[in-house]
Amino acid sequence: MKVFKFGGASIKDAEAVKNIASILRHYENEKLVVVVSAMGKTTNALEGVVAAYINNTGESSKLLNEVKKYHLHIMKDLFPEGNKELSNAVNNFFVEAEWVLEEQPSKGYAFAYDQIVSTGELVSTKIISEYLKECGLKNNWLDARGCIRTDNSYREGKIQWEVTQSLITEQVAELFNRSNIVITQGFIGCTSENYTTTLGREGSDFSAAIFAFCLDAPEVYIWKDVPGVLNADPKHFPEAQKLEMISYLDAIELAYYGASVIHPKTIKPLENKNITLYVKSFLNPTATGTLVGTNAQTKPLIPSFIMKFNQELVSISAIDFSFIAEDNLSVIFGIFAKHKVKINMMQNSAISFSACIDNDPFKVPALLEELNRSFKVLYNDNLLLYTIRHYYPSTIEMLTAGKEVLVEQRSRHTAQFVVRNSESQ
Ligand code: ASP
Ligand code: MG
């Protein structure tokens, strides 16, 4: 049994969906749980719908309709003769999203976000499931909301592992009696009150890891539009190289610091059960890709570069010039935790504490406001955070040449720099 995950780029149009069918055909005799995310840039587009809804711009229905049209277009290419059952199902998902837009957003941004943005995965998986059937690849569609149970932290649902474990085992076993392939959504889950939650952007990798963990699958395959895990983003580093193997430790570090190739929460469930992860190219499915696993030593051992754009550096000091010590720090961390703001890098001196964070317009203003009530707060934005894993001194010189470095930090294997951003994302 294997768990596969296909991301947005691998299903961005009809051609891409057809390619998935041909990949799955190679594994026809195996049991597969196939976790799929939203098509192409649908999640971004749906985020636009939510923003319009929350800001009451009057455009939300129009924007939702554009998302719908994009899917109908793909369906037309895949089913020139039409598919009534699929059209109804897709239509129903959009009607449900439309209903949310008709209500006042009384439960707040994060709640609305999850109810609307989850439409992307629900629709993509229906389309793929129906298309595979059409190609003779028997499969069953599983609603991940019926088995991935989370708390009600909307936009970053925390998995309730025990219930999830028993729901997944039970439901997948039942579907495997009927077909070898189970198609389900990445990124989404559900609370005990039946409200949809999401697991954080790019969370479909994590969903694949959850399924693999609960089902004791020996292998997870993440299918990407790159040959495997690269040591840098080729958009910014044209000489980027593929890593053949990565240790779990390096993988978790790279993902934690923001390497977009694997979602940070993915590795832990895999490591805990010794599940091997393959990152492979859906454009070249027979090529080896990258293996992340138990006995894997990172190979080649070269520096890996991670860039995080749109960073803000917040410097916090006590109003009365007192030291920033344990008592203040615990208050400061409490405020960050309350606003669910993750610190990408931090440093403290006698009288100030600095944190580099993502400039999230829905979280940062409220965080700063609360910090300002008890502390003196200064901030700089439009910054870029570089993280280099397995660095050489020369790599650092090369990266920081001619740039203003606001904060830097080095440990034995990892170096981080916050610089003013002169590059475009
Ligand atoms: N569709 C979601 C996103 O784009 C989840 C994922 O792709 O992993 O963030
Ligand atoms: Mg996606």
Description:
With 425 residues, this protein is an alpha/beta fold. It has two domains: 2-217, Carbamate kinase; 304-424, VC0802-like, CATH 3.30.2130.10. Helix content is 39%, strand content 24%. It is built from 13 helices and 16 strands. Strands 3-4-2-1-7-9-10-8 form an eight-stranded mixed β-sheet, with helices on both faces. Helix 2 (42-54) packs antiparallel against helix 5 (108-117) and helix 7 (161-176) crosses helix 8. The protein is globular, with a radius of gyration of 22 Å. The model has no long low-confidence stretch (mean pLDDT 94). The structure holds aspartic acid and magnesium ion. Aspartic acid is lined by residues 7-8, 37-38, 43, 120, 186-187, 201-204. Magnesium ion (MG) binds next to loops.
